[in-house]
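Hi V.,

Quick status before I head out on leave. The structure for the redesign project is tokenized and pasted below; the design run finished overnight.
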């Protein structure tokens, strides 16, 4: 199974185009709309926020995913979330789909919509409709079009996030591309983010949905920046079949290869979100190893990566391992703290701070050096079995408060 990360993004798979535009939705002059389009109809799958307060685009897209209609396009705006906007907000989703469909000569039922930004405001539909018209006229394939689309969906992100993987199925070269946004309001539970994936693989809708759900559990759902689960969380994938592989209709070797590729690209994008947490200076990775079972490991890892005290210690390069053991203790997962070992690891080295629940004679100076790297890993060995899990987050800094104190202005 040879899965290669390659340069590219949403437009890398065959038959996909993208466009971006500065529609004037944001107060500052920035690109704030994007469109993704497939030359042919696609099997479509999606997964969404578990927050009971769901934005209008989430409800629109959930209804489309449940239908048997193929997907053809996605139109996205940043700056206004279209959340908590009632029937008017939902009607605007329909209007966006109808305008996109009219310009592209496709069905409104094949157009997905997504929004990100401030909650509670109605979309400026004059700018949205005008933006859709521009986007439809600018659709292009190629690397630059994908890059600009990734840039246009950002809110507090500091950089666009995109990726692509190439692999082989049934003797055919196939590709998955993707782009996402996410920086604040990120917490495990389908994560606070937008992610869009494209693939030229031929696969049934049912198996596409199953693969996406499985991939999300160990990638986006293992990310936490600040403990807030948003109203707009969405992951969508379009599969247009243009690679012309024999259609994947059962869980055979081809399906397992496709699922593995989905894991690779989604883990890459999830880590990009974690490392770009609002105000972050470091990617914070947590590995729980030798657990009795996977769910136990996941609960422990997510509790550590979500701990505000631990995240603050990572920012201060402070080897305060007691905060880690404390976070494990309130996770809800059973484990024996008196058998637990804790390590810090980074490009600067690896150090064991705790053995069997008690401090080792470690060097504070060495620990601080290890914690001063831009990517830091905590390893918690609970010595109970062979299961493991990994979660990702970031440090908690002064700038997180600054960003969120004046987000709307």
């Amino acid at each position: 199974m040879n899965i290669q990360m390659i340069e590219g993004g949403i437009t890398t798979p065959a038959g996909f185009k993208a466009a971006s535009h500065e529609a004037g939705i944001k107060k500052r002059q920035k690109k704030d709309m994007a469109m993704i389009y497939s030359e042919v109809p696609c099997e479509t799958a999606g997964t969404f926020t578990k927050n009971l307060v769901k934005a209008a685009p989430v409800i629109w897209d959930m209804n489309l995913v449940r239908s048997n209609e193929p997907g053809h396009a996605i139109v996205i705006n940043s700056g206004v979330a279209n959340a908590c906007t009632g029937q008017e907000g939902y009607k605007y989703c329909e209007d966006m789909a109808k305008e996109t469909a009219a310009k592209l000569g496709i069905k409104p039922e094949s157009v997905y919509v997504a929004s990100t930004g401030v909650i509670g405001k109605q979309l400026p539909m004059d700018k949205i409709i005008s933006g859709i018209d521009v986007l439809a006229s600018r659709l292009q394939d190629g690397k630059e079009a994908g890059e600009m689309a990734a840039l246009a969906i950002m809110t507090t992100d500091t950089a666009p996030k995109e990726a692509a993987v190439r692999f082989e199925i049934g003797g055919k070269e196939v590709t998955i591309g993707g782009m996402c946004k996410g920086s604040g309001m990120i917490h495990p539970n389908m994560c606070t983010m937008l992610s869009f994936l494209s693939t030229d693989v031929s696969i049934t809708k049912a198996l596409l949905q199953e693969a996406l759900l499985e991939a999300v559990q160990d990638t986006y759902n293992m990310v936490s920046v600040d403990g807030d689960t948003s109203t707009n969380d969405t992951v969508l994938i379009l599969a247009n079949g243009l690679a012309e592989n024999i259609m994947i209709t059962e869980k055979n070797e081809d399906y397992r290869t496709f699922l593995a590729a989905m894991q690779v690209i989604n883990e890459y994008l999830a880590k990009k979100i974690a490392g770009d947490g609002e105000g972050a200076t470091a990617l914070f990775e947590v590995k729980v190893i030798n657990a009795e079972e996977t769910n136990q490991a996941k609960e422990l890892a997510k509790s550590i990566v979500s701990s505000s005290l631990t995240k603050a210690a990572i920012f201060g390069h402070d080897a305060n391992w007691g905060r880690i053991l404390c976070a494990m203790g309130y996770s809800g997962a059973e484990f024996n703290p008196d058998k637990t070992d804790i390590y810090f690891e980074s490009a600067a080295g690896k150090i064991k701070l705790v053995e069997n629940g008690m401090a080792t004679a470690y060097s504070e100076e060495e620990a601080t050096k290890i914690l001063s790297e831009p990517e830091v890993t905590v390893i918690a060995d609970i010595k109970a079995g062979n299961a493991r899990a990994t979660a990702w987050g970031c440090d908690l800094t002064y700038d997180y408060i600054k960003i969120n104190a004046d987000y709307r202005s």
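Above is the designed sequence. Residues 186-192 have pLDDT under 50 and may be disordered.

G. will cover questions while I'm gone.

Best,
W.
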